[in-house]
Design goal:
two-stranded antiparallel sheet, single chain, 15 helices, alpha+beta, about 475 residues, about 35% helix
């Protein structure tokens, strides 16, 4: 197993959730980040800005328990090759917590009722352990239901322009499940938003972008097509620094923004991320969010909205189902399917049916080796049938001579009663054969050939002495 995979397994085993260490009291570093994030919204802020920052002191006992669990996990033999790197990861966890902050900003005259800002510090492993603290995100809920999850990303090939693409299926939220009793806006559920942001790096999400680019030639989905026609939007989205430009990812694809429909609320959650280094990252990220949210508000609402869902996974709901090529697929409700089933049953031909007793009887007859109704032959009948087949299939009785008929004393021909002579040899009936006939019969008989053994004995017989040979010569 690769070291990168082992590193990932170790992190997942800890079940670390940075949201458990957020407090309202900010450090000086966190205050500066929040000031930079809210400065561009200063003219539109209405109400109180709520900010939270990470602190190990809030859950110090829980953090100590986490470290003990990590030490026990490190003792496993499979981590021996990267044990040093994993210890470096544990040392950087407090710093990751401190560099995490989140701000809820109430605004006016904008597509959302409030905008949420957060930092996205990450601990990565590439031969060495690194803490990357430059990534940020802006997100908010709009009062429009777009009906389909839509992503935006870039490709490493400079000839391929950035694009919007539909997401088919469910997001890879890493096993996260949203509680059904959650009453506050989804944008304020830190763990939920964190799972969505992490899903942007998933291979499943990236494959959706490539599929729409290569398999569908970048067009066919109504929402993605409409967004791609907005040049001002594309210009703002193009300014975002993704994992490709920051070199955080070695992949050729980076997804940096997403629009997630929320069927239960009839709203949509828009998220944009930025991984630049300078102060301009705040302006670029917020501008992209503003333009993306405004464009989504202009999308036509689905004609049919799906019933509210209680699950946490965003799905393609509301309105007719369409393929990425724009083809509308017919959808049936449970009642429609039941009605169709009744219609088909009524149209079925009159097919015979069997009771349970009849089926049991059939089963027993099959088990006996002779199915019911099959013809069976006895041995005598089989012999008679074989005799008929030998005669060419004709039922011809065997000929029996008439007892009243006599045979010719000369040639043996059968003679009927009343005949005076044989019709073959003209011998009178009852007359004995003449001597001439007997001699002719004897002459015509061929002498029997000697058997091979007798011939060999004659050939092999030799004279016993020379005297006998001389006698023979004389």
């Amino acid at each position: 197993m690769s070291e990168t995979k082992l590193f990932e397994i170790f992190i997942n085993s800890l079940n670390f959730d940075v949201s458990e260490y957020l407090v309202e009291e900010l450090t000086e570093l966190q205050k500066k980040i929040v000031d930079d994030a809210t400065f561009i919204l200063k003219e539109n802020i209405v109400g109180e800005v709520k900010s939270f920052g990470g602190s190990v002191k809030k859950n110090e006992e829980k953090f100590k328990e986490l470290m003990k669990q990590a030490e026990l996990e490190l003792e496993k033999n499979k981590y021996k090759d990267i044990k040093k790197n994993l210890k470096d990861y544990l040392k950087k966890l407090p710093e990751l917590i401190i560099k995490t902050c989140i701000t809820i900003i109430p605004v006016k005259e904008l597509p959302w009722g409030e905008v949420v800002f957060r930092t996205i510090p990450r601990i990565t492993f590439d031969d060495k352990v690194h803490l990357l603290d430059n990534a940020i995100a802006y997100y908010g809920e709009i009062n429009c239901f777009i009906g389909r999850t839509t992503i935006f990303g870039k490709m490493k090939d400079p000839s391929n322009e950035p694009l919007f693409a539909p997401f088919m299926g469910n997001l890879d939220l890493g096993g996260f499940k949203l509680e059904e009793s959650q009453d506050k806006p989804k944008s304020q559920v830190f763990s939920y938003v964190n799972a969505i942001i992490n899903s942007l790096d998933s291979a499943i999400t990236k494959s959706q972008l490539v599929k729409y680019h290569e398999g569908y030639q970048r067009h066919g989905d109504p929402i993605a097509d409409a967004l791609m026609k907005d040049d001002e939007l594309l210009n703002s989205m193009g300014k975002i620094t993704t994992a490709l430009e920051s070199e955080r990812s070695k992949s050729d694809i980076a997804v940096c923004s997403i629009a997630v429909p929320l069927p239960s609320d009839k709203r949509s959650l828009i998220i944009t991320t930025e991984e630049g280094q300078g102060d301009s990252r705040f302006g670029n990220c917020f501008e992209a969010l503003l333009k993306f949210s405004a464009a989504c508000c202009q999308m036509p609402s689905p004609r049919q909205e799906a019933p509210p869902q209680t699950g946490s996974t965003p799905e393609q709901t509301g309105g007719p189902i369409r393929t990425p090529g724009g083809q509308e697929l017919k959808v049936w409700t449970a009642e429609d399917l039941a009605n169709e089933a009744q219609k088909r049953l009524a149209a079925q031909p009159n097919i015979p049916s069997w009771s349970e007793e009849e089926l049991t009887k059939f089963s027993e007859s099959r088990g006996s080796g002779i199915p019911e109704g099959m013809e069976v032959w006895k041995e005598d009948e089989l012999l008679e049938l074989a005799e008929k087949r030998r005669s060419g299939g004709l039922n011809i009785p065997e000929w029996q001579p008439d007892q009243d008929m006599t045979e010719c004393s000369n040639c043996g021909y059968s003679l009927r009663p009343g005949w005076a002579k044989c019709p073959v040899c003209d011998t009178p009936v009852g007359e004995k054969p003449t001597e001439e006939v007997k001699e002719e019969t004897e002459e015509t008989e061929e002498p029997e050939e000697l058997s091979d053994e007798n011939q060999n004995e004659d050939k092999n017989q030799e004279p016993e002495s020379k005297e006998e040979e001389e006698d023979i010569d004389l």
